[in-house]
Protein backbone atom coordinates (compact mmCIF):
# COMPACT_ATOMS: atom_id res chain seq x y z
CA UNK A 1 0.00 0.00 0.00
CA UNK A 2 1.16 3.55 -0.69
CA UNK A 3 2.45 5.69 2.16
CA UNK A 4 4.90 8.19 0.66
CA UNK A 5 4.51 10.19 -2.58
CA UNK A 6 6.78 9.19 -5.44
CA UNK A 7 9.28 11.75 -6.73
CA UNK A 8 7.68 11.81 -10.21
CA UNK A 9 4.30 12.76 -8.74
CA UNK A 10 5.88 15.52 -6.64
CA UNK A 11 7.51 16.97 -9.77
CA UNK A 12 4.11 17.09 -11.49
CA UNK A 13 2.48 18.92 -8.57
CA UNK A 14 4.33 22.27 -8.54
CA UNK A 15 3.46 23.41 -12.10
CA UNK A 16 -0.28 22.90 -11.46
CA UNK A 17 -1.59 26.30 -10.33
CA UNK A 18 1.84 27.09 -8.80
CA UNK A 19 0.92 30.35 -7.04
CA UNK A 20 -2.52 29.35 -5.79
CA UNK A 21 -3.20 28.25 -2.20
CA UNK A 22 -4.59 24.76 -1.80
CA UNK A 23 -5.70 22.32 0.88
CA UNK A 24 -4.18 18.84 1.13
CA UNK A 25 -6.51 16.08 2.30
CA UNK A 26 -4.60 13.47 4.32
CA UNK A 27 -6.25 10.10 5.01
CA UNK A 28 -4.15 7.93 7.31
CA UNK A 29 -4.18 4.29 8.33
CA UNK A 30 -1.81 3.59 11.21
CA UNK A 31 0.43 0.57 11.60
CA UNK A 32 0.09 -1.26 14.92
CA UNK A 33 1.60 1.12 17.50
CA UNK A 34 2.13 3.67 14.70
CA UNK A 35 0.23 6.55 16.25
CA UNK A 36 3.10 7.49 18.60
CA UNK A 37 5.54 7.65 15.67
CA UNK A 38 3.08 9.80 13.70
CA UNK A 39 2.62 12.14 16.64
CA UNK A 40 6.42 12.58 16.86
CA UNK A 41 6.53 13.23 13.10
CA UNK A 42 3.73 15.81 13.50
CA UNK A 43 5.57 17.62 16.29
CA UNK A 44 8.73 17.86 14.20
CA UNK A 45 6.91 18.66 10.96
CA UNK A 46 5.12 21.64 12.53
CA UNK A 47 8.26 23.78 12.27
CA UNK A 48 8.59 23.01 8.54
CA UNK A 49 4.91 23.69 8.02
CA UNK A 50 5.31 27.15 9.58
CA UNK A 51 8.56 27.82 7.67
CA UNK A 52 6.85 27.18 4.33
CA UNK A 53 3.59 28.95 5.17
CA UNK A 54 1.44 25.88 5.77
CA UNK A 55 -1.36 25.67 8.33
CA UNK A 56 -3.06 22.67 9.89
CA UNK A 57 -6.78 23.37 9.48
CA UNK A 58 -8.15 20.18 10.98
CA UNK A 59 -6.96 16.90 12.47
CA UNK A 60 -9.29 14.23 13.78
CA UNK A 61 -9.85 10.52 14.29
CA UNK A 62 -11.96 8.61 11.81
CA UNK A 63 -15.21 7.10 13.04
CA UNK A 64 -17.37 4.39 11.53
CA UNK A 65 -17.94 5.35 7.88
CA UNK A 66 -21.52 5.99 6.85
CA UNK A 67 -20.89 5.24 3.18
CA UNK A 68 -17.82 3.18 2.28
CA UNK A 69 -16.86 -0.23 1.01
CA UNK A 70 -15.45 -2.71 3.51
CA UNK A 71 -11.90 -1.69 4.47
CA UNK A 72 -12.25 1.97 3.48
CA UNK A 73 -12.33 3.34 7.02
CA UNK A 74 -9.43 5.65 7.92
CA UNK A 75 -7.82 6.08 11.33
CA UNK A 76 -7.23 9.82 10.97
CA UNK A 77 -8.05 12.73 8.67
CA UNK A 78 -6.04 15.94 8.34
CA UNK A 79 -6.61 19.06 6.25
CA UNK A 80 -3.51 21.17 5.69
CA UNK A 81 -3.54 24.49 3.84
CA UNK A 82 -0.44 25.48 1.87
CA UNK A 83 0.17 28.90 0.29
CA UNK A 84 1.06 27.21 -3.01
CA UNK A 85 2.01 23.92 -4.59
CA UNK A 86 5.48 25.34 -5.06
CA UNK A 87 5.78 25.97 -1.29
CA UNK A 88 4.65 22.40 -0.57
CA UNK A 89 7.19 21.07 -3.07
CA UNK A 90 9.98 23.11 -1.44
CA UNK A 91 8.99 21.81 2.00
CA UNK A 92 9.05 18.14 1.01
CA UNK A 93 12.41 18.67 -0.73
CA UNK A 94 13.95 20.27 2.38
CA UNK A 95 16.69 17.93 3.70
CA UNK A 96 15.60 18.48 7.30
CA UNK A 97 12.03 17.58 6.46
CA UNK A 98 13.12 14.52 4.49
CA UNK A 99 15.01 13.35 7.56
CA UNK A 100 11.87 13.19 9.69
CA UNK A 101 9.66 11.48 7.08
CA UNK A 102 10.99 8.11 8.26
CA UNK A 103 8.77 8.61 11.33
CA UNK A 104 5.72 9.06 9.10
CA UNK A 105 6.65 6.10 6.90
CA UNK A 106 7.09 3.86 9.94
CA UNK A 107 3.77 5.04 11.42
CA UNK A 108 1.52 4.24 8.46
CA UNK A 109 0.35 1.23 6.50
CA UNK A 110 -1.56 3.32 3.98
CA UNK A 111 -2.20 6.97 3.19
CA UNK A 112 -3.92 9.24 0.71
CA UNK A 113 -2.53 12.72 0.05
CA UNK A 114 -5.02 14.49 -2.19
CA UNK A 115 -4.45 18.12 -3.22
CA UNK A 116 -7.78 19.91 -3.52
CA UNK A 117 -8.92 23.00 -5.39
CA UNK A 118 -11.77 25.17 -4.03
CA UNK A 119 -14.95 25.01 -6.08
CA UNK A 120 -14.98 28.81 -6.14
CA UNK A 121 -12.04 28.66 -8.60
CA UNK A 122 -13.76 26.31 -11.02
CA UNK A 123 -15.02 27.77 -14.25
CA UNK A 124 -18.75 28.09 -14.66
Notable traits:
124 residues, alpha+beta, Alpha-Beta Plaits, four-stranded antiparallel β-sheet, 4 strands
What does this structure look like?
- The chain has helices at residues 7-13, 35-51, 85-93, 95-107; strands at residues 22-30, 55-61, 76-82, 108-116.
- It is an alpha+beta fold.
- It has one domain (7-63, 73-117): 2-Layer Sandwich (Alpha-Beta Plaits).
- Helix 2 runs antiparallel to helix 4.
- The longest helix is centred in the middle third of the chain and has 17 residues, at 35-51.
- The chain is globular, with a radius of gyration of 15 Å.
**Biggest β-sheet: strands ordered side by side in the sheet:** 2-3-1-4
Give the number of DSSP strands.
4
Provide the number of structural domains.
Answer: 1
CATH class: Alpha Beta
Which word captures the global form?
A: globular
CATH topology: Alpha-Beta Plaits
Give the C-alpha Rg.
15 Å
What's the rounded overall pLDDT mean? 87
What structural category arises from helix and sheet content? alpha+beta
Strand content: 25-35%
Indicate the percent of residues in helices: 25-40%
Amino acid sequence: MAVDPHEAILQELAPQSPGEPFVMLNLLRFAPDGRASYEEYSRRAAAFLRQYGGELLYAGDGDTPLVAAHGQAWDAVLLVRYPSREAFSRMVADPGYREITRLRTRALTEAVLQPTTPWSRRAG
